[in-house]
Amino acid sequence: MEYTEDPVKKADKLVLKGIEFVKSNQHEKAITCYNNAIKINPKDRDAHIFKGDSLIQLDRHEEAIEQWNKAIEIDSDYALIWNIKGNLLYKMGKTEDAIVCFDKALEIDPKKEFTWNSMGFALAKLDRYEEAIVCFDKALEIDPKKEFTWNSMGFALAKLDRYEEAIVCFDKALENATNEKNRKGFQKIKDQVIINKNKKENVKDT
User: Do 69 and 84 have their domain in common?
Assistant: First the structure.
C-alpha cells in the first residue's frame, strides 16, 4: 500500500524549511516554502504569519498585513498576531488602526508587557498622554525593570508638566539602564526636562 504523508505534517515541514531559509536571509525562498505550505493546508496559521514576517523584510508591508489578516481569520484569539499587526501599522503611520489591534491583543491577553508598551507608544503619538501613562504603568506592573518603558512614561508625564513624577521615572530608567549608551540618552532627556521645569517655575515667579 502506497504511503501518503499527512498533509498537515507536510505543510509543517515546509514551514520549518522556510524558517531555515530566513536564518540566512533568503526571504524569497522562504516565501516559496510558505506558499507551498498554504497550498497544502490553507488553514496553516503559522505559514501565513511567517510569510508576513518575510514580506516585511522585503518591504512589502501591505502584503504582510494581508497575510496576517488571513492568520486572524484562522485564529482570531491569538494575541501575538494582533500585536505584530499593530506594530507594523504603527510603523506605517496608521496609529489609530494600530491601537485597535493592540486593544484586541490586550482583550485576549492582558498580561503581555510588550503589548501595553506598544499601546502606550501609539497613544503618546496621538498626544493622548494620560491614557499612555496608564498603559506604561500596566507594563511596569508586569516588568518593573524595563528601562525604555520608564523613559517613555517620564516623557509622557513631562508633556503634561508633571515634572517631579517624570524625573522619578527617568531616575528609574537610569537605574535599570542596560548599557552606557542608553544611560547617556536617558540622562540627556532628564536634564532637558529639568531645564523645562526650571523655565516654567521662573515664569511663574515673574
Answer: no
What span, in angstroms and rounded, lies between the C-alpha atoms of 86 and 78?
A: 13
- Evaluate if residue 3 carries a pLDDT over 70: no
- Give a yes or no: residue 134 inside a domain: no
User: Which grid cell sits at 64?
Assistant: 504582510
The answer to whether residues 3 and 50 belong to one domain is yes
Alpha-carbon gap, residue 23 to 150, rounded angstroms: 33
Q: Is the pLDDT of residue 46 over 80?
A: yes
Helix (H, G, I), strand (E, B) or coil at 192: helix
Phi-psi region of 93 (alpha: psi -120 to 50; beta: other; left: phi over 0): left
Residue 61 sits in a domain of what CATH number?
1.25.40.10
Q: Which long-range contacts (C-beta less than 8 Å, at least 24 apart) are formed by 50-54?
A: 50/15, 50/18, 50/19, 50/22, 51/18, 52/84, 53/22, 53/84, 54/18, 54/22, 54/27, 54/30
Q: Which DSSP category does 73 fall into?
A: H
72-88 average pLDDT score? 97
Asked which of 61, 93, 126 is the last residue of a domain, the reply is: 126
pLDDT of residue 203: 77
Contact of 170 with 185, CB cutoff 8 Å = no
